[in-house]
Fold this sequence. Notes:
single chain, alpha/beta, 19% strand
Amino acid sequence: MISKNDEYWMKIALKHAHYAEKKGEIPIGAILVLKEKIIGQGWNSSVINNDPTAHAEIIALRQAGKIIKNYRLNNTTLYVTLQPCIMCFGAIIHSRIERLVFGASYKKDKKCPFKDIFFDLQKKYKFKVQKNIMEFQCAQILINFFKNKRK
């Protein structure tokens, strides 16, 4: 179910994606919200940190855990500009977020079995997923980034 605030929060996640882009990182941003307050935020920073796990979602989840002093992030909503990868999805499951909202769908490989696993696990772990919030804007920043990289 789409929340009236989904676009508001996704715009903030997009600001983090733009920040990542300015730093030369793949432009993905994420924020974690609890009771209408941001408790975690992140942007991709794998290159800067020499850390393959430094994805926007992971950074936001780590920060939120420290802020609320709990690894269980119950009653939260994670906003991320791109559908999470399998690593991030595993972290999302373990953190027990209530709701995942993402902008662009992962379309690199249309036959990717992860798409099926993603939605099967989402049902199994009973958290809500809302996709395609501000999809065009979230996809466009990635398209432009990779277009410029290829020049």
